[in-house]
Write a structure and sequence with these properties.
Blueprint: E1 5-8, H1 12-23, E2 29-34, E3 44-48, E4 55-58, E5 68-72, H2 76-88, E6 92-99, E7 108-113, E8 119-124, H3 128-133
Parallel strand pairs: 1-4, 5-8
Antiparallel strand pairs: 2-3, 3-4, 6-7, 7-8
Helix pairs in contact: 1-2
Length: 134
């Protein structure tokens, strides 16, 4: 349904470094920075799986309102790795990896708060036996 999503951050370089580390276990990386002459002087960059960015941050310094963004993970191990990488990159715990059966039987997610307090999640919807087949 969605093609891409973006959010504003207070410190572009700090958030860029956070997302580079936190999203790496999910197979996402920093792909593109928009030239400042096209952004009114604001730093804007995008992350994703090649060839195109799907998640954007801008350094407008207006990280409000706080948003929730969930990234799809290929398996539960990737959710766990995202959580650990995000905490090491400066994220704050907002829900350790685990099942969230109130969403559905196989919903396995982890939540961290990014440097601006946005709720960032990695989620796997596959049953655990899918991990063993991978």
């Amino acid at each position: 349904m969605l093609d891409h999503v973006g959010l504003s951050v207070a410190d572009y370089q700090k958030s860029k470094a956070f997302y580079e580390k936190a999203l790496a276990p999910l197979g996402y990386r920093f792909l593109f920075e928009v030239p400042k002459e096209h952004t009114g002087g604001i730093s804007v960059g995008g992350f994703g799986a090649p060839p195109k960015p799907e998640f954007w941050i801008d350094g407008s310094g207006k990280p409000s309102p706080k948003l929730h963004v969930a990234f799809r993970a290929r398996d539960r191990a990737a959710v766990d790795a995202f959580y650990e990488a995000a905490l090491k990159a400066g994220g704050r715990d907002n829900g350790a990896p685990g099942l969230r059966p109130h969403y559905h039987e196989h919903y396995y997610g982890a939540f961290v708060l990014d440097p601006d307090g946005h709720n960032i999640e990695a989620v796997c919807h596959a049953p655990p036996e899918a991990d063993r087949r991978a």
